[in-house]
Amino acid sequence: MKRRFLGLSIVALILLASSLVLGGPEKAASDKSKLKEGLYEQVELFADAISVLRDDYVEEVDSKKLIYGAMKGMLSSLDDYSQFMEPDEYKEIQVETKGEFGGIGIEISMKEGILTVITPLAGTPAEAAGLKPNDKVVKIDGKVTKNLTLNEAVKLMRGKPGTQVTLTIWRDQNVFDVPIKRDVIKVHSIKKADLIEEKIGYIKLIEFQENTARDLDEALKKLEARGMDSLILDLRNNPGGLLDGAIDVSERFLPKDKGIVSIKARNPKQAELFKSSGRFTRPDYPLVVIVNEGSASASEIVAGAVKDNKRGIVLGTKTFGKASVQTVIPLKDGSALRVTTALYLTPSGKLIKDEGITPDVVVERGSVEKKKKDEADEIFEKLEDETARKALKEKPAEKAKPEAKPADKPVEKDSQLESAVNIIKAIKIYKGQKT
């Protein structure tokens, strides 16, 4: 219904759209008349601004450029995740969900006004360059990111495979440059699936895509054929992905009619509770889910479902706290609106956005950066400080140290995985004694 108005004049489009927002003439009751008048005044103000720019700007302006710019500003003013996508950006989003796209292999978000790394994707140039969850990207090829939208930042980081982009990173009060060579990014849902010891299965799930449920079924089937009697599901640094993928993964471990996730929307009619169907449930073997600050969105849905239904133990550190519903609405010219239309809640009704999932068992792995409300201002003030800039020029930029290969140094001790294995063993002992 919204799309059919795109061919009309600017003023007519806005007036008709505002009528739709207000619910149409049939709903224009007296209690809404003042709101309607106020909105029409703002619409007229916008139309006046468009007219001024078209008539008086120093150069002739493209109407599409003006409207695109206005829509970008309008969407970005709502929250960190709503955005307007030009046609080429919308095409890239469609490709990404199928598991292959161009870039450096980094999942990013705007967090408290700062371009923040959610996680580098496994096996990508970003991971090889040593980027970490919660790194702050303060510059891209020398361009300060403070006033960039998420879309603009993504466009700067993407490019032809083989070309280089340099990110300036803020980490633990240090600023350093990270040169990264772009590549074609191919992401598979499962990075590793194996038995680690005493019939304990281990699956590393790195993203939720269209084929995630199928890939998980294949991995589980192979491990079960090898005698797996318990499972560790590793969701660390998993940035999320498709809602359907999170529901499908959760279903593999929950009996019928158990809550997975609920949606809280502005319109009560859009609220929905997703429950397990019981069609794909695996055996009720001991389960531990490992998460960290790089686990976001769909990962948080799975962790929340396992935790609230007491199906297994969630272990690690508090998750990222990004769990909201972005609905993509295609527009007539190939562009699209990505709008936050609802929020995800765990089966027990706990909000995930900004709160994250707190594990049943907290096990740290490395330092956890403390968040500050004024962190964005603090970072960019220091970045702009003349003394700091002079010091950066005189001192060679620190380089991020990539993960060394096993042949170069001993594998780093994974205390979270070790704890998960010990919990599985304890559950087995308890169940055996109970039997």
CATH topology of the largest domain: 2-enoyl-CoA Hydratase, Chain A, domain 1
Helix content: 25-40%
The 3D shape can be described as: globular
In angstroms, what separates the terminal alpha carbons?
61 Å
Number of domains: 3
Strand content: 15-25%
Please provide the count of β strands.
19
Q: Order of strands across the widest beta sheet?
A: 10-11-12-15-16-19
Q: Whole-number radius of gyration?
A: 24 Å
State the gist of this model:
The chain is of the alpha+beta class and 435 residues long. It is 34% helix and 24% strand. Mean pLDDT is 81; it is low at 1-25, 366-373 and 402-411.
Give the arrangement of secondary structure elements.
Elements lengths: L9 H12 L8 H27 L6 H14 L6 E3 L1 H10 L3 E4 L2 E6 L2 E7 L4 H4 L7 E5 L2 E2 L5 H8 L6 E8 L2 E8 L1 E4 L3 E8 L2 E6 L6 H14 L4 E5 L8 H9 L7 E7 L6 E4 L11 E5 L6 H11 L4 E4 L7 E7 L5 E10 L15 E2 L12 H10 L1 H9 L20 H20 L1
Parallel strand pairs: 11-12, 12-15, 15-16, 16-19
Antiparallel strand pairs: 1-18, 2-9, 3-4, 5-6, 5-7, 7-8, 10-11, 13-14, 13-18, 17-18
Helix pairs in contact: 1-2, 8-9
Describe what you observe in this structure.
The chain has 435 residues and is α+β, with helices and mostly antiparallel strands. The protein has three domains: 3-61; 87-186 and 370-394, Pdz3 Domain, CATH 2.30.42; 190-324 and 341-368 and 418-434, 2-enoyl-CoA Hydratase, Chain A, domain 1, CATH 3.90.226. The chain is built from twelve helices and 19 strands. The strands form five sheets. It has a six-stranded mixed beta sheet, sandwiched between helices. Strand 15 (287-291), helix 9 and strand 16 form a beta-alpha-beta unit. The model is unreliable at 1-25, 366-373 and 402-411 (pLDDT under 50).
